[in-house]
Design brief:
about 30% helix; four-stranded antiparallel sheet; globular; two-stranded antiparallel ribbon; alpha+beta
C-alpha cells in the first residue's frame, strides 16, 4: 500500500462520500499492484455502484486529461502519492455540470 495521504484537488461531493472514495482507493491499493490502474479503478467503481447505485465512473493514473459531464454532488478528483483518482457519476437529465479536471 502507498503510505501517503490523499489530497483532494477538486470536488462537489459530500464529505462523507469523499471519505468513502479515499477509503476505497486505499483498499484498492492493498488489493492491486500500484501499476494496475485498471484493476484499481474497477474496484472503486464497483464499490461505488454497490454503495450508491449504478452509473459511477472511475479513472486512475499518473497522467491523464479528461472532460466529462456528471451529476451534481458526485464528483471528486484527488491525488494519492503518484496516482490521481477521478470518480464521478454519469449525468441525469435534470442536472449536468461539466468539469475539466487537470
Amino acid at each position: 500500500m502507498l503510505e501517503g495521504r490523499a489530497i483532494i484537488q477538486d470536488t462537489d461531493m459530500p464529505v462523507k462520500m469523499q471519505m468513502q472514495a479515499m477509503s476505497c482507493a486505499y483498499e484498492a491499493l492493498d488489493l492491486f499492484d500500484v501499476l494496475d490502474c485498471t484493476g484499481i479503478a474497477a474496484h472503486i467503481k464497483k464499490e461505488f455502484d454497490v454503495r450508491y447505485g449504478p452509473g459511477w465512473q472511475c479513472v486512475v493514473g499518473s497522467k491523464f486529461g479528461c472532460f466529462f459531464t456528471h451529476r451534481k454532488g458526485t464528483f471528486v478528483y484527488f491525488c494519492l502519492e503518484r496516482l490521481n483518482f477521478l470518480i464521478f457519476k454519469g449525468p441525469s437529465a435534470m442536472s449536468t455540470p461539466t468539469t475539466n479536471a487537470k
